[in-house]
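MODEL INPUT / OUTPUT PAIR
PAIR INDEX: 1
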Amino acid sequence: MISRRTGQPIAFQPIDAAHPSGNTFSDDTKDLHTYGLSFGTKWVTIHDTATDPGGTGFDANALAKAAKATPFKRPENGQFRPGTGFREFYFDETGDTNADSTANNGFGGWGSVLKLSQADPKADSGTLSLVYNGDKAHTGLDNVTFLDADHVAFVEDAGDTLHSQRGLLDSAYLFDLRADFAHGAQPVRFIAEGRDPSATLDAGFAGKT
């Protein structure tokens, strides 16, 4: 992904004296989680089984950093939008799953939904834009599936820490891709997890044999 500010790839920034938090709080990270902005993209290859040595392990993280691939806030799952001929791809960032994360306010700590668009599915370039910025009530987005061309469902995996912090377990939300999430539209919750007495009783035996 290309920075709107520098025209250079938004790559992993190691923690050093000049960047004590890496690129966690960089201008580029903030831009990525700002409605209305779009970014040029270009695919990079980190391992090609047709040309790279096979049968041996490789460090995907190290290769991605070397290729200047863009890091996201824990991306989990994605789906192509039906009817777009593989030209629109939607994926989620799970985020930090912690209500105390200092990245929650504007830097993707609550996670997000992002859209990758390509005029030609065989091309190596396209554009990336923000669909939805998460918040305390809608975060930890993980599994995803389309119900039809305009409605996509994301399911939370918020984790025990955030479950305790907000007093709620995970939910599933339906996003209408025609809605204006930048100006207050919200997804519709259609599944909400709860705990029945038996489940609560079982939890008391966790870790015991």
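PAIR INDEX: 2
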Amino acid sequence: MALNVIMMGPPGAGKGTQAGRFAKERALLKISTGDILREAIKEKNQVALEAKARMDRGELVDDDTMIAIVAERLTRPDAARGFVLDGFPRTVAQARALDEIMERRGSGPLVIVDVVVPEQELIRRLAGRRICGVCGTNADVAAASCAKCGGTLVQRSDDGQKIVLERLRVYQNATKPVLDYYRERPTFRVVNGAQPPDRVARDLDTLIDDATTARL
């Protein structure tokens, strides 16, 4: 049976890092809507460019766009063994659409993990985040240059203080209802994301395995 995981959490919670680690260790496909959008932006796709403008203002991309992006990605052969979703679903409409997609796929249940971090810690983390101005790779806070290509590090366009506060507000208003949508499912789990990353990773492994066993 395929292992399908949704990594939830506010901006700065570390869900992208943990999603990438877990997917690599379990040989699963990691699907980040942010990565998909960035690829489309490089190709000058007009829909993606409009979506980027909304993201830069701290707003969510519209449901139809995000649902179409994810639905198409899940049809590819490399998603057959399972996946880890990062950045989707962000609204209840997207969550319902994903349920319909999963029903059509018939590929097993969803394990939903909420990575919880206090707001002040999120603000501190987001203010210190940097990406490579050349290749767009996320960088360690202490790094002097990009570990991938050596490029100069810059602040993400959506990590300015005003944008950070707006992103957290949007998350509270739009995305937290998704947690309520999933909360009563036997495969829903919560992890303390304020811990050191290695401890978060160990807890995630345990929680996801537990959720999978509980569903069998």
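PAIR 2 NOTE: The chain is about 50% helix and 15% strand.
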